[in-house]
Amino acid sequence: MALGVTLALTPLLIGEPLAVLRGGGLGDTVRLIVSEILTGLLIGIIGRFFFLALQTILVVITQSIGLSPLPGSMFEDSEPLPPMASIFSLAAATMMFASDLHWELLRGLVGSYKALPVGLEFGARIGLNEIADHLSEAFVVALRIGSPFIIYAIVVNFGIGLTNKLVPTIPVFFIATPFITAGGLLLMFFTAREFLNIFVGAFAAWLQQG
Prior knowledge:
cell projection, 7 helices, T3SS_IM_R, about 80% helix, about 210 residues, mainly alpha, membrane, elongated, flagellum
């Protein structure tokens, strides 16, 4: 996919690198290649933060509703995730393509050559600032997505813990587990569409605004 995108965008962008390299030596070429690789890695890592934040909060959500002990397989990585987290990660990626955000990603790659012209040395300080800002933004979005489930888990577990203190002879946690899961699934039924829209909206805003 990377090779295909490179070949597709080369006719649009080849003029500026050639102009910068004209008359330069091998050292200039190597420095330019390293700088562009670092810039590309910065853009890719920032985009990846959004999906990592989503996967993290989905694990928290599945733990909150009692589904985390069931191991699942990632659709794009080797790290296991709970099945519910895998399903919604795949749904988020599918929505990205269904809403044509991959075209915005290509437009962003083309636009990055105007925002960061070829020949401009990679600024480590600016790159770290961008990483920190977008990392915090991605996890704020994740907290917005997971906040109903976190509140649900706090309230339910507080109530169950209080009940267990009042009647310690009854295995309250064992009895309440199916009801916790049922309530969590019901909450997910009513909020799944909204939290996927929040994620796709935040990712689209980053693609359009940088």
